[in-house]
Amino acid sequence: MDVLTALLLVHLIPVSTPKNGMSSKSRKRIMPDPVTEPPVTDPVYEALLYCNIPSVAERSMEGHAPHHFKLVSVHVFIRHGDRYPLYVIPKTKRPEIDCTLVANRKPYHPKLEAFVSHMSKGSGASFESPLNSLPLYPNHPLCEMGELTQTGVVQHLQNGQLLRDIYLKKHKLLPNDWSADQLYLETTGKSRTLQSGLALLYGFLPDFDWKKIYFRHQPSALFCSGSCYCPVRNQYLEKEQRRQYLLRLKNSQLEKTYGEMAKIVDVPTKQLRAANPIDSMLCHFCHNVSFPCTRNGCVDMEHFKVIKTHQIEDERERREKKLYLGYSLLGAHPILNQTIGRMQRATEGRKEELFALYSAHDVTLSPVLSALGLSEARFPRFAARLIFELWQDREKPSEHSVRILYNGVDVTFHTSFCQDHHKRSPKPMCPLENLVRFVKRDMFVALGGSGTNYYDACHREGF
């Protein structure tokens, strides 16, 4: 198992059966809200947030700026949409989810039928290998492991439509005769990320022309390109996993719960835990399929409440101990460095790569959120989106600013590099130089060593 998969196992959000329907308004929040947030963490509420079941179009803060600001470029990081589990609970029947796309079945999107028709004609694009061997849309009557579902496609058609209304119709980010070099598209080699990226683009672009769509392949879930070798980052991760393991050992109720679940499915406790039952249960919950039962009984809500309570404790300790932050600062540096490079070229008037899309995983977004200092942000839900906007002040054309948005919420002034700026400035965004200084210098300062660049920080002795 690679380190990223191991990290993923620990941070998936557990699920429960819905007792009450949350309103779409309360489901979409990422920052604590005293009005809609339950007073204590409620596993049902958290699971609904995580499922992100498509409902009414959400209100979002993307593209909000005073009229004298001009949008220069947009950089979008997404987690793939709803998927079938990556793990099977031993000795139980797999949940029966249909991964074919049916236009008149819920969840529905007006562009779904046209999307299927467009994708089924086959790509006129030549994607970077090995992406060219992946299917362009989900198409199995019984989903395959990890396959994107219809819900996942609709989530990203919805994301794309939302961004189109704001960035293309309102702000005219791309000209009418836009060209392939004005998009930068990158995805990992999983069908669920490629298909999520295609669904978002299909909702976003006014004219989905295969000749203009070129996806680059990213072998690493951290999108670190040629800068993936970083021994100190891996040491932080090992220490973080050790911390998680020790916390779990202390929790006798958690061990008892895993023991009960293991008895139900008649396997050793260790084997059940290794099968990551939460991942499969999440699928049951999001698709309203009852949890598995055997002749020994059923897995139930109480099991999940125990696991969820432990995870909340784990998240709290994770923030206090700062090991994950060390991992995140080094893990997110290459992709943030690439992003500011793209922004700086745009400030010079270059017209390439005005819209960048990274179609990725929870283990991609989570370190970026942590590195930016967004400790209040929830674990990335299905089809989560993190967006960097670059703006130019028309009254002072040499001045450029950034806004950061997570699932439609403006989190710019929650970031570590801009949390004090709005106290000194009335502008509703952050100077680009704050972000550049953070990526070029302050990320390394935060690690506490003497390193002032990525290579030195990754190879620091005596950590």
Automatic annotation (TrEMBL):
Membrane disposition: Single-pass type II membrane protein
Top-level taxon in the UniProt lineage: Eukaryota
Pfam families according to UniProt: His_Phos_2
The protein's role, per its UniProt record: Responsible for the 2-O-dephosphorylation of xylose in the glycosaminoglycan-protein linkage region of proteoglycans thereby regulating the amount of mature glycosaminoglycan (GAG) chains. Sulfated glycosaminoglycans (GAGs), including heparan sulfate and chondroitin sulfate, are synthesized on the so-called common GAG-protein linkage region (GlcUAbeta1-3Galbeta1-3Galbeta1-4Xylbeta1-O-Ser) of core proteins, which is formed by the stepwise addition of monosaccharide residues by the respective specific glycosyltransferases.
Location of the protein in the cell: Golgi apparatus membrane
Membership in a protein family: Belongs to the histidine acid phosphatase family.
GO molecular function, one term: hydrolase activity
Reactions performed catalytically: 3-O-[beta-D-GlcA-(1->3)-beta-D-Gal-(1->3)-beta-D-Gal-(1->4)-beta-D-2-O-P-Xyl]-L-seryl-[protein] + H2O = 3-O-(beta-D-GlcA-(1->3)-beta-D-Gal-(1->3)-beta-D-Gal-(1->4)-beta-D-Xyl)-L-seryl-[protein] + phosphate
Coiled-coil regions, chain positions: none
The protein's name in its UniProt record: 2-phosphoxylose phosphatase 1
SUBUNIT field: Interacts with B3GAT3; the interaction increases the 2-phosphoxylose phosphatase activity of PXYLP1 during completion of linkage region formation in a B3GAT3-mediated manner.
Phylogenetic placement of the source organism: Eukaryota, Metazoa, Chordata, Craniata, Vertebrata
Organism of provenance: Gorilla gorilla gorilla (Western lowland gorilla)
